[in-house]
């Protein structure tokens, strides 16, 4: 009896999920994809590497600006002095990176325009989610480090690509500036890893044992 009820529920929720998937799929294919799955380009689509480079600059410009607002919130939620100062240091670095991007825009003869970065919006949201799921203290600190490292890795990937694009485009002055930022993002990632390995993960683990 119990089993039968359970099976019915499972079957029901499965078909509900199927319906949902179907709806999403048809919506996506209607708005973005052609019948063979190729995404249809917008009229504003990049026509060459230079356009793609500029689009990527606009994307990371938005992302860095969003981080200047998100990092103070993370610092406020951290308790480890080491972590708080790492985040605050990186906030100052991030503000410089925003200014450096403005220089890159002007070097390549483009206006500095921010275009929403869906990935960074998601990564920042994920960080907020991790904070909601943890009590203030070492465990939240460990979560903040995890979220921050996802952010740094996204930035490392982005600046690595931007350096490669600028190199191909022969924008040598832009390459130097972008390489500088890339090095800063890598440094931030290393500092966060060290903070986690040296103390915070151990403290977070002990917090768990205190509760048992
Ligand atoms: Fe950055
Ligand atoms: Zn981005
Ligand atoms: Fe992006
Ligand atoms: Fe960064």
Explain this structure.
- The protein has 212 residues and is mainly alpha-helical.
- The protein has six helices and no strands.
- It has one domain: Ferritin, core subunit, four-helix bundle (Ferritin), CATH 1.20.1260.10.
- 82% of the residues lie in helices and 0% in strands.
- The radius of gyration is 22 Å and the shape is globular.
- The two termini are 38 Å apart.
- The N terminus is likely disordered.
- Bound molecules: fe (iii) ion (FE) (3 copies) and zinc ion.
- The site of one fe (iii) ion has 5 residues, from helix 3.
How many DSSP-defined strands? 0
The CATH topology corresponds to Ferritin
CATH superfamily: Ferritin, core subunit, four-helix bundle
Oligomer: single chain
What general form does the structure show? globular
Rg over CA atoms: 22 Å
User: Helical residue percent?
Assistant: over 70%
- Ligands present: fe (iii) ion, zinc ion
Measure the end-to-end span.
Answer: 38 Å
Under the CATH scheme, which architecture would be assigned?
Up-down Bundle
Top-tier CATH class: Mainly Alpha
Low-confidence stretches: 1-30
Provide a compact summary of the structure:
With 212 residues, this protein is mostly helical. Helices cover 82% and strands 0% of the residues.
Task: Give descriptors for this structure.
212 residues, binds fe (iii) ion, binds zinc ion
How would you summarize the topology of this molecule?
Blueprint: H1 2-31, H2 49-77, H3 81-107, H4 118-132, H5 138-169, H6 172-211
Helix pairs in contact: 2-3, 2-4, 2-5, 3-6, 4-5, 5-6
């Amino acid at each position: 009896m119990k089993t039968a009820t359970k099976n019915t529920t499972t079957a029901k929720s499965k078909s509900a999920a199927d319906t949902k998937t179907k709806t999403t799929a048809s919506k996506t294919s209607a708005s973005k994809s052609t019948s063979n799955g190729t995404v249809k380009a917008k009229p504003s689509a990049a026509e060459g590497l230079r356009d793609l480079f500029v689009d990527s600059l606009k994307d990371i410009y938005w992302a860095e600006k969003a981080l200047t607002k998100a990092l103070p919130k993370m610092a406020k939620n951290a308790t480890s002095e080491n972590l708080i100062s790492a985040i605050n240091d990186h906030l100052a670095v991030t503000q410089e990176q925003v200014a450096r991007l403005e220089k890159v825009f002007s070097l390549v003869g483009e206006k500095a325009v921010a275009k929403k970065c869906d990935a960074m919006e998601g990564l920042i949201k994920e960080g907020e989610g991790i904070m909601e799921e943890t009590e203030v203290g070492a465990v939240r600190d460990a979560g903040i480090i995890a979220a921050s490292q996802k952010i740094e890795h996204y930035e490392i990937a982005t600046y690595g690509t931007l350096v490669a694009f600028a190199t191909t485009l022969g924008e040598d002055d832009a390459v130097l500036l972008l390489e500088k930022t890339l090095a800063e993002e890598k440094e931030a990632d290393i500092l966060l890893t060290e903070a986690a390995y040296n103390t915070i993960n151990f403290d977070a683990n002990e917090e768990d044992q205190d509760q048992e």
